[in-house]
Amino acid sequence: MTLARLMSRSRLGSDARILRQTYGVQGTSPVPPDLIKAQELKASGVLIDDHILSTDESEPMPTSPAQALQQQEDRQRDFPNGRAIPLYESDGTTVIGMFTIGL
Description:
The chain is α+β, with helices and mostly antiparallel strands and about 100 residues long.
């Protein structure tokens, strides 16, 4: 996985804290980057190409096959059309749309 350092100022008025986030694609590394490259195709046909936060995407790891099956059943019941999470600009703070997981 290729990672680059992203240093960006937040856009929260006078809050000038610096974010130190990695970005890229999930590869063979067990540790995902903070911002994962993602694309969302809108109904209008417009393709939004930016990032999701790995913390938004992740779910707890099951500890048994029975728990894995239960998580899958819960997810299908609670999110039959997929789960929407924010889609961010590369600054990691500006939300530009929503990304659907699980379709």
